[in-house]
User: Fold this.
Amino acid sequence: MIATGYAQAQSGRSNHNPNFFNTDIDYSVQAQFSIGGSSPLGLPKTIRKIESYNPGLQVGLEANATKWLPENKQWGIRAGIRFEAKGMKTEARVKNYLTEIVKDNSKVRGYYTGKVETNVQNTYLTLPVLAVYKLSDHWNLYGGLYFSALLDNTFDGNVSDGYLRQNTPTGTKITFEEGSQASYDFSDNIRKFHWGAQLGTEWKMNRHFKLLTDLTYGFNNILEKDFTSIDFGMHNIYLNVGFGYNF
Amino acid sequence: MLLFSLGSCIKEEALNAEADIEGASIVQGDQFLKRKPSIDNNTVIFSLKRFTGSYVQAPEFVLTAGATIEPKSGTERDFTEPQKYTVTSEDGAWSKTYTVSFVIDEGADLYSAFEYAEVVDTDSPEGHYHKFYELTKLGQKTYSWATANDGYNILAATLVGEGEQLVPNFYPTSQITAGYIGNGVRLVTKSTGSLGGIFGTPLAAGNLFLGTFQTTFPTIKSPRFGTLYEEKTAPLAIKGFFKYKAGEKFVVNNQPSSLSKDTWDGYALLFEKALPPNDDFLSGDHGFVDKRIVAIARVGAKEQIETNEWTAFNLPFSFVNGKSFDPNKEYMYTIVFSSSKEGDKFNGAVGSTLLIDEVELVVNDAQ
Assistant:
């Protein structure tokens, strides 16, 4: 690398001291809006209808650096740091949905049929590590992995207009009359670290400004491994749209 | 894009997993049955107006969609003894056994001695609690008195502390052997633990009432007060015996409260039948202001004392809402006891204990 840097210094500008961090490297800051959700891969049979979905305003801010490989400067490696919010609100109709209401070591578990409102709002500190391919003067493709640490977590909601069969579908029937609800809060059970894939494209308007869009997909269930209150995994799946500034 | 994929991948609905008897009937039910059959999670009781010479019946059942029942609906069986039926869910994975009985209903006894209680054993969740019954002249069980033990059972197994056991006297309402005469009833205000708050029931007052209990949220809708009033004159009073000890720490979960120390409640209501389907009960939130109430008998300051001795109470009925008794109308009535007067608002003191025995509805038999 040092040799490369030296070689490039020979052919590059000589008015400043060339090194790895100022040669063939782009620095940028970008902002994004995300729309998506924490969703099972293929909805389980227990979910009968999504009655409403609200992505909320999910904003992310990222600073990154792209180092272009020296041979033809078509390929680059990008690393960054991103603060991002991921969240949604949904209202669904479920049938025989296995869930439990837990507090301080006591719990009521059962099969729920009725309305479930879910509110997810998490903030992550994310490190993307991406390969960038220069398609043309205006277009780049990028893809790779990201690693996220949870900073702030909410996963709560309530059940209403339905009934719970305690323990088994033939157990005691607990009816939730219209307008009456029981709330749940799984916020403390959100996975602290997760990783996933990111794939996207950016369009360079000019030397400084760019627009970008990408898709991120989390490999891990967003809830902890030993969490059994919901019997299917949910993954962070988001479409991100943003703009950036290249220095 | 993502949304379309979410919306479009709703899978085919799974077959039903529940196995309930949702309705029960017999041919010419109007003629032979005193009231709608009572159905809970494991029993069906048909109340016959009179004995017709035989207990051979062919009850028909309405089940969870797709479920099957064995023996089949409409099968003739001899119900001299209660009979078992097995309902299997549409998906075949779940089944439930029901006990179906036919009893000659002579109406709730005007006099209740609380001599009989059976232990209800549940396994989903585990529970063991008392259910009171009376024996008819023919030796059949009738269940006029209800408690909130069914509801408490949802959480009971999670509330057993060190040195405690999940046995009937762990529940808010249980039978005691040391009654005023023979056995009696003990009502205790219990904590519902941290989960109770989530369900909107921060505590559970021990209660005992004429009617049924159906676990419902809001919880106050669960007790369904009422049994058929079959006398030809207005009731005069309720009588009985009690002991009471208030728990130490009175907690107000729902303002306002008119109390600073816990006390008990005991009352009777005579009320009009309304239109189906909610014609035959008042729910726990009647607040003594329901327009259907005709007459009220209720304990007052004189009875709301702490006492270690069996103490008699005698509470006369007063007409309310400008109503009077009309022998041509159909009425319901209930008698209710609670170990915490404001138990309906979940205000009370854990440990408040009310003992009740030998309760009588006084009517003027002379007419």
Q: What stands out?
A: Chain B touches chain A at residues 1-3, 6-7, 9-14, 17-20, 41, 89, 93-96, 122, 124-125, 150, 153-155, 158-159, 193-195, 197-200, 214-218, 221 (CB under 8 Å). The domain at 15-105 of chain B is CATH 2.60.40.2340 (Immunoglobulin-like). Confidence is low (pLDDT under 50) at residues 1-5 of chain B.
